Fold this sequence. Notes:
The chain is an alpha/beta fold. Helices cover about 45% and strands about 15% of the residues.
Amino acid sequence: MLSRFRLLFVFVLLAPAAGLIRIAGHAPDPFWPSFFLTWLAFGMVVWLSHQRWSLSLALLLAGLIAHGAGVAWVGEAFLVDAERFGHLRHASVVLLGLVLALTDLIAFLLVWRRGGSFLASLARAILALSLGELLRRVILGGFPWNLQAYALADTGLDQWVYLAGSHGLPLLLGPFLLAFVWAVSRRYYQLSLLPLFLLAGFALWGNQRDAPAEREETIRIVQPSIPQDLKWVRVLRDAHVARILGLADQPGKFDILVFPENALPLDIMRNPQLRRDIMEVGDGGHDFLGGQLIFLDPEQTQVRNALITLDGQGEVVGSYSKRRLVPFGEALPFRRFLEPLGLDKLFPMKVDFEVGSRRHGLVLPQSNLSAQPLICFEAAFPEGRAGDDDFLVNVTNDAWFGTSNGPHQHLMAARFRAMETGLPVLRAANTGISAIIDARGGIVSSLGLQLEGLVEDKLPGRYAPSLFAKFGEWVLVPIVAAWLVMLGLVPWIRGQKNK
């Protein structure tokens, strides 16, 4: 009877609550206590699930609620061409949520052990949630969305991603909760205050951390706010180009002009006059960074999603091609099998985009500043990038997702890329949210969703390259190893204990 009541409690109350608490940490208004409450909820699920099958079902339920709600904005993309794809809207969200929930399940099963104290179950839950995030970096080409660390935005604790990155932050802070729970369980109430004071100290340091001094260069970001269903209509092409150039040519002096992803719906590489027009807006003499499709052949059967720079005469002097393509948006996975079923890409071009070969910076010819490109989805990936670059530039087209939470979540990811690398971010989005973000992840200037206009301000300064910026994901190796040793999940240690 007691066992049945426990299972009923887990499935009806605890697992759904764990999923809902996890959702509370998502943008646009993350509830920071959910960062720690999520661990407690999942720790309870592990502790009360005495069988693998009950644990698996509870985790799938919690994960489907959390991930399904977290990526519900994906369904908005299917409404851009509702006649062809609208019927796939809800199924796509459920399927993606289920796949993401499976990554959590795999991670939990890897660290789960029958029995044990609540403290041990809590520790395993903290490690498993982080391993699930790492697993999502590689499945389906990688989908590290709505990371745990994002719940701590603007708390001061978020600044510690400068040391360990967004994947490493939960594993750095997890021991504080474990110490608190251990002290309370042993009734060492005064001692339980120590980890709380230490966390408060970490947050205080982050909140008082000075941002680097701004630079002299002025940034102008164009947000044309062209609806996705109208963007590629051929008869509107000239009007779209005029709209974008008109915004760029507003009065005022600027040093760097930034256009969003695929800003101009034509082949700019074969249109030298348009490139010259871009460089002649304003007072001239500025640098340009623009997201643009590059067609490698006149028949447009080979295409790359790229970021380009121009010199004063409008000649292309640098380009970067996107390395992480969006499944079903820029490439149809398993095309050989899915295309005969009537499935296709959402993007109107029939051919799959080509993948860029490597990550590299772009040097601006006028200012000699170096920009590290992040095209659209690439901003979701925590990676060491800083080097000698002066800023990150994130061009994107979130018009696919309307006024949903998707653009807010994407902006949050860009803010954490700034904190991790110590570099400011220039974010140009077709329909918003465009922003200039300083090296602390703070928004200096921005323009909201579905608004047409400009974002202008001085270029923020940068920090010295962080530990994470220098070594990237390698900083996670000793952190994860320490957790595995602590939980006795290393086979050699388990063998020594059994002797």
